[in-house]
Write a structure and sequence with these properties.
Elements (H helix, E strand, L loop, with lengths): L3 E7 L7 H8 L8 E7 L4 H8 L6 E5 L5 H14 L4 E5 L18 E4 L3 H12 L8 E3 L17 H6 L2 E3 L2 E2 L17 E2 L2 H14 L3 E4 L8 H12 L7 E6 L6 H7 L7 E8 L3 H6 L6 H14 L3 E8 L6 H14 L3 E6 L18 E2 L7 E3 L5 H19 L6 H6 L3 H16 L7 H14 L5 H15 L19 H12 L2
Parallel strand pairs: 1-2, 1-3, 3-4, 4-5, 5-6, 7-10, 10-11, 11-12, 12-13, 13-14
Antiparallel strand pairs: 8-9, 15-16
Helix pairs in contact: 1-4, 2-3, 7-8, 12-14, 14-15, 15-16
GO cellular component, one term: cytosol
GO molecular function, one term: iron-sulfur cluster binding
Protein name: Fe-S oxidoreductase
Length: 502
């Protein structure tokens, strides 16, 4: 029976716990005494505890992250009520920066901070040998990457069929952007290329077709990036999909030549723009050539088939509604396929926390610790942008409103979409659980009443998008007066021509 259970609560079933597989791979002889059990944040803590307690392990290790800390806390609290003798070990970024620790840390027997592959194994050996250490917090010991056992064999067949497979060609980041925990890294360290590609070959032969690279800076070492891309080009097949996080201002010609070779629906780039404001960039130690970033985004859109997912953050120190609007409008003009509007969150240990008092950064005390107000942004404004971001996901990022969105944004994207967002909230009272057909009707009202778009123009674009959704029947906006006489101006003209021949 396993004496060690490694577990976490994933955000969704499709995700897999990469960190647990690294811990398991590096347990050495203890691997025979261990197993991985994964759950989701939607699972009930009482059900999780019941499954964890089957065969009564001696040690349970939890991976704790910003997205699951509340649920892990509830689970550990229950576990300690019914089985207080079981040793609970916590690890992960949410518990790696003492004394800034969440409440669940008080319930744990041990906490392993930082990288855990070596230290977790050592701690388990001590506990099972009856030599448990007195200190509660164990500092994770770094290990040369070449000494780590590979996690990839521990993706099982179900993972390969149904889940995202995470891979990493390097660890760390040389940049010091203060909102990111990678700012604490000294530099980026690559895994040995031959070994890494050999592991990717095994995964590919097992049927993996969706590879999500977690490298913070995939295009840092261009020769390595090109070698990895060419590896996958040689194995191009239906369903192959690669996700990379890239530095937006670093696309040398050699890399561009390789990117141009990829067919559509095979590449996704997550491009962290975050802000175009030079003053904020300096304040948060972010090095970014804004003009080169724009040039590269234009090139990616025009010359490759890559899906471009660009990130902006609202609520950084020094941010205001006006300068965020300027960054947003500049990014919209570059036409990435998605713009992810992130609301700043407080990460434990992130250097950005040094600005908390000067800029009066006030965060939600509950996870995910989203920013509530700053010196320059009031709570009401922050709420408006939270709604803006949610509606942007539903309307722009969903891809369902390709005809409608340009009419909404026109020549003032931020200002007009903010007005639309305010109107949608006034009409619906919610940003959640809005049925698609109802969203079309709400958009018709908001566009015609708040943006003063003509009813004919609004109907034409909304109908074109509605027809593509596959929804049956007519939305209410399509039943308004005049619609049955002509569903669009083009149809009206066609009807007139038909009547002239009768």
């Amino acid at each position: 029976m396993p004496q060690i259970r490694l577990t976490t609560l994933n955000a969704r079933y499709i995700h897999s716990a990469f960190g647990l597989r690294y811990l398991y791979a590096n347990l050495g002889e203890l691997q025979n005494e261990a197993e991985i059990l994964e759950f989701g944040i939607q699972d009930r803590p009482i059900d999780i505890v019941e499954k964890l307690l089957q065969h009564r392990p001696k040690i349970i290790g939890f991976g704790v992250y910003i997205w699951n800390v509340a649920e892990v806390g509830s689970t550990v609290a229950l576990l300690k009520q019914v089985a207080p003798e079981i040793v609970v070990i916590l690890g992960g970024p949410e518990v790696s920066h003492p004394p800034d620790l969440p409440l669940v840390a008080e319930l744990a027997d041990y906490i392993v901070t930082g990288v855990g592959e070596i230290s977790f194994r050592g701690l388990c050996e001590q506990i099972l040998n009856g030599e448990a250490p007195d200190e509660k917090i164990i500092t994770g010991a770094e290990s040369p990457l070449e000494n780590l056992a590979s996690p990839y064999p521990y993706y099982n067949d179900e993972d390969v069929r149904n889940r995202i497979v995470y891979v990493e060609a390097s660890r760390g980041c040389p940049f010091k952007c203060e909102f990111c925990l990678s700012a604490l890294d000294v530099t980026a360290k690559p895994f040995a290329l031959d070994r890494f590609l050999g592991e990717m070959e095994v995964l590919y032969r097992r049927g993996v077709r969706h590879f999500k690279f977690i490298d913070r800076t995939f295009n840092l070492k261009i020769a390595v990036s090109i070698a990895i891309l060419e590896f996958f080009l040689e194995r191009m097949s239906d369903g192959l999909f690669l996700h990379f996080e890239v530095i937006p201002d670093h696309l040398p010609d050699r890399l561009k030549q390789t990117l141009e070779k990829f067919p559509s629906a095979t590449l996704q780039f997550e491009v962290g723009v975050q802000t175009f404001d030079p003053a904020i960039q300096r304040l948060i130690s972010r090095r970014q050539d804004n003009e080169k970033t724009k040039e590269n985004l234009r090139w990616l859109k025009a010359s490759t088939h890559a899906h471009i997912h660009a990130d902006l953050i609202f609520g950084l120190p020094g941010d205001t509604l006006n300068n965020f609007a300027a960054s947003f409008d500049q990014l919209v003009a570059l036409q990435p396929h998605e713009i992810q509007l992130g609301i700043l969150k407080r990460l434990r240990g992130a250097p950005l926390n040094r600005h908390n008092e000067t800029y009066r950064m006030r965060y939600n005390p509950e996870p995910p610790y989203n920013i509530l107000s700053t010196r320059d942004i009031g709570f009401d404004e922050m709420q408006r942008i939270n709604r803006f971001a949610r509606y942007w996901d539903m309307i722009a990022n969903s891809g369902r409103f390709a005809e409608t969105l340009p009419l909404i944004l026109a020549d003032a994207p931020f200002e007009r979409f903010l007005r639309l967002s305010d109107a949608l909230y006034e009409l619906s009272g919610s940003t959640w659980k809005i049925a698609l057909r109802r969203l079309f009707d709400l958009l018709y009202r908001a566009m015609t009443e708040s943006l003063a778009i003509s009813k004919v123009d609004a109907k034409n674009v909304l109908e074109a998008d509605y027809r593509k959704t596959g929804e049956k029947g007519l939305a209410s906006f399509m039943k308004t007066e005049g619609y049955e006489k002509g569903k669009s101006s083009r149809q009206n003209r066609a009807n007139k021509r038909q009547r002239s021949f009768e």
